């Protein structure tokens, strides 16, 4: 029997994640200490018994390829299952860089044609949730649907970021993409189950349409909805789109607690990843760690509160990390204070520096709609000199600083890594 | 180093590690929060680019086999060479268990013959050290030795389990004795031997009935007949074959600086990854000078301790100077001191473990359990609100009903005797 196949859309640059996705694809952005965003989707696939998985990439796939290891962490690969990462290849006439996520699938149509699957699942690679896709597939087949979209009821405040569906008895009557005043609060989760023929037909029409943006949400869905062949499957569990810095930060913090939003060690539904093979975390005599996650390979000699400490991070004596996410191998030096910040990998916060400091919450001047809640972002491999002060809503990427402390006021976008 | 075969002696249990080696071999003993003891020599093999490794395993090997898998953690999943776990087997003719270290090698003499190599490095799977075996093999080759024995100056207390070595001015080994009086020898043997393959094979072939031991029956006779040289290794090395040494070596990791650096980027120690979430520290957590592995949930107080993956310390509990293996649960308001708690054991709420007078040695194991350390076996459920003294031995798989309904006094043992697990008093 032909297996259902899964296509994970992992090509996006995730521009709204700013410096976090500057050098890696959005699904490869580290999450929850030692995971990456795509781990949730892939774990859902294998836990649902799906074992033919193709990950379509385009934007900076290096981190993602290294992470996926041809599927080994998810027990994929070998003779009976597949995990392939596919870059655009332009091998034959008419192939090019992907013009949109629908075009990405169109250019890889042979994956479906060669296999004659009963269903094709198209999944976003950048959402945080646990979901058994089997009841969704059963629903899809029971309704004889051409396309089934998984939907979730969301707060009205979230709908402008999402596509919403007007649904009657399971059938989608209308689909609105990122509307400010939508008719429904049932949001599309970016999870689609297609009949292969319907998918191929829709992609073909889309490819021939020169005005199309070749996007599943904007172009493919509305087309099938107009034909009255799309159904909605309502999902009630935890689900987060982590497309913005605020959403990314909140979803991370949802994991910190005695009853986290997602149980990562659930024996029934494990979230698998390329786990660190480092020694246990060391907490010294002078350490204090409360309401936080700490990964293997970390060394904590300072104070950590309400934070996530990734593998290999060092928090030196007298340093304080509060309400922050510190990614792999970053060093917070003696006396430094990090507050409401995300510090990317391999960075150094110099002694007695303050990151996320002050009461000035001026939104970021370059990204006024994206950085307003006070979160400061330090880019990968940055070096913040001793005694610096960095305000709130900042994005700072400095690889080779000039000597002497920096004064970076709230709302600043600062980048000298290209210099 | 394509011309070396490494044979790891990982066969043994240990009467000096009661309960902890009831269900696993010494080499599979958890160490340092994330590792097994054998990870150290396997990581040494990896960094030293040893292409072929044979592991001689006999005693309860399941835990070891599961841990090693295909050897990929140590880059030993190779098309040629790689890792092989070698166990006793039946055959036409005479069939025996491994009757000793030399016997285990002799039973796999065909394996040794078949691997294309010039030298065979025979090491123990139960020691903690970082060594570049290539340097020792070079030394062995350059000096034109038939056998090279790694030795260490015995300024420190000579560990009881190892052999004393005497050398002459040219570093030739002139005497080797097992378990000697410490004053008589200025070096001790690390149990790391490089053999020229031809010499090893000939010696194993020549073993007579009753000759099973690598020191008595292979090395000591060779000192007379062949060129046996010493290789002085003066870095950190520890044998963890007894409770005291295991405990002290573990706690050495918490010293500042640690006795052995586990975060050494030039010589990482590799192990099977732990498929766990990050450790969670609750609002009431307080942790000092401790190693805490992934998957732990800490709500209580932890001081000078080593916690393996998945340990849960509930609110109000105090864990001090202790080693807790995977998935141990410490109930609310417990106090645990100077105790090794094996996997999945539960300590009931408000119980005290490791209290009282440390000068009263264990009744069953007075030699191994006399310095005050208490051991709780795997999957045992200690009831609520009891006291367990020091130098106590609490066996594996005991339900709360098995406990006598009173305190367990210092030096007492509580062990279920089974067909597989006999306690020799």
Number of DSSP-assigned strands of chain B = 32
- Averaged pLDDT of chain A: 92
General shape of chain B: globular
CATH class descriptor of the largest domain in chain B: Alpha Beta
Strand order, sheet with most strands of chain A = 5-4-1-6-11-8-12
Mean pLDDT of chain B: 91
CATH architecture assignment name of the largest domain in chain B: Alpha-Beta Complex
| CATH topology group of the largest domain in chain B | Spore Coat Polysaccharide Biosynthesis Protein SpsA, Chain A
Q: With helices defined by DSSP (H or I, 4 residues minimum), what is the helix count of chain B?
A: 8
Runs of chain A with pLDDT <50, length 5+?
A: none
Rounded radius of gyration of chain A (Å):
22 Å
Q: Using DSSP, what is the number of strands of chain A?
A: 33
User: Whole-Å distance between the termini of chain A?
Assistant: 57 Å
Structural class of chain B: alpha/beta
CATH superfamily of the largest domain in chain A: Spore Coat Polysaccharide Biosynthesis Protein SpsA, Chain A
Task: Write structural notes for this entry.
- The complex is a heterodimer of chains A (419) and B (425).
- Helix content of chain A is 17%, strand content 27%.
- Chain A has a seven-stranded mixed sheet with strand order 5-4-1-6-11-8-12, with helices on both faces. In chain A, strands 15-18-21-24-27-30-32 form a seven-stranded parallel sheet, with no helix packed on it.
- By secondary structure, chain A is of the alpha/beta class.
- Chain A folds into two domains: 5-253, Alpha-Beta Complex (Spore Coat Polysaccharide Biosynthesis Protein SpsA, Chain A); 282-415, 3 Solenoid (UDP N-Acetylglucosamine Acyltransferase, domain 1).
- In chain A, helix 3 crosses helix 6 and helix 6 packs across helix 7 (216-226).
- With 425 residues, chain B is of the alpha/beta class.
- Chain B folds into two domains: 4-254, Alpha-Beta Complex (Spore Coat Polysaccharide Biosynthesis Protein SpsA, Chain A); 280-414, 3 Solenoid (UDP N-Acetylglucosamine Acyltransferase, domain 1), CATH 2.160.10.10.
- In chain B, 16% of the residues lie in helices and 27% in strands.
- Chain B is built from eight helices and 32 strands.
- In chain B, a hairpin with a 3-residue loop joins strand 2 and strand 3.
- Chain A binds chain B through residues 32-34, 256-258, 264-265, 270-272, 275-285, 287-297, 299, 304, 308-309, and chain B through 32-35, 73, 256, 262-263, 269-295, 297, 299, 306-310.
